[in-house]
Amino acid sequence: GLxxxxxxxxxxxxxxxxxxxxxxxxxxxxxxxxxxxxxxDDPIDAFAVHGxxxxxxxxxxxxxxWGTGMDYFxxxxxxxxxxxxGACVSGAWGEALVANILEIVAIAAWTAFxxxxxxxxxxxxxxxxxxxxxxxxxxxxxxHSPPKAYTGM
Length: 153
Prior knowledge:
The protein is an all-alpha fold and 153 residues long.
């Protein structure tokens, strides 16, 4: 819920914020379950939280904008709708929706590009996975857990 409300926090009302956060919880759970079903390893659910819920939040910023009617848009303008000389611009809501969809696409493309740039060389070099013995024992046991707590005391 928190990631879902981050983008629209400045232009939605309290009730809308509550709904956005609750719906974000369902998006998180659905995305996390889907990743597990597809056997995609994301142990900290980073994509479910930041990717899926973040994209929902960007869309929610437009869908729940407190503008005057469905044709106008407030964005970060407070109680004033987007426009010039005190007049609201007709069609601003549609433009904002298209802009936010393009933002989601751009963020996904940027993330994919730099992920490939980092992870492909790591995979080619054999540095992306732990060896079989370490995987069998578990990375927590081998790398992160001392055999006995407080051994230095």
